[in-house]
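hey can u check if this looks right to u? its 198 residues, i copy pasted from the old doc so theres a chance i mangled smth
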Amino acid sequence: CLGDYDLSSAILEMQALRTRILTKILESRTPLRWFPGFLVAWQNLLSFIGECGDIQFPSIDFVEYCRELTALANGWKLIGDVAQARSTLGKCFEVTRRNLKVPLAETAPFEDDDSQALRCAARSAKKLLLDCVAFQSSLDRTKELFGRHEAPAHVLSSLSKDFWTLIREAPFSVELAIFLAQCLMKQRQFALAGNLDC
């Protein structure tokens, strides 16, 4: 298992490598093709680090570990896998609860810097968790819209049918798809309103 020094080094090396890999993914022509696999590899590495949790690591390592978990959860949310995002955040909360009696409480004046930083990491994770809950509601509404409506004719003329079908039948959606669905529904409402006026 990793020692204290090795854990810190592993996290720093992972952060540097992650930045380089993400840059290459985002510069590619099909970033969403590579991004899920990258998240799985990132998750596996963090899981390996998490297996060393029985050893008393310095608090700063716990802070960085929680920040990495939160960043990973945000990546899962980005591609629409809210369940995986919430599961990842759960691991972050487990770490903070083991090291702080009330992780989400206000910072006490006598707390050391590491405890304050860990408490701040817990708050960031909670904020993302609330975002995930709201995002899941948006996903559910979007899937309902996709199920009840067809694409407007003028949209179908500019989008291939295969592309529209792909968006409708995808196992998960992304924020862009939610925005697209809302725009399509607004356009449909305007079109219906115009027909009624006539």
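The CA atoms of residues 18 and 42 lie 8 Å apart.
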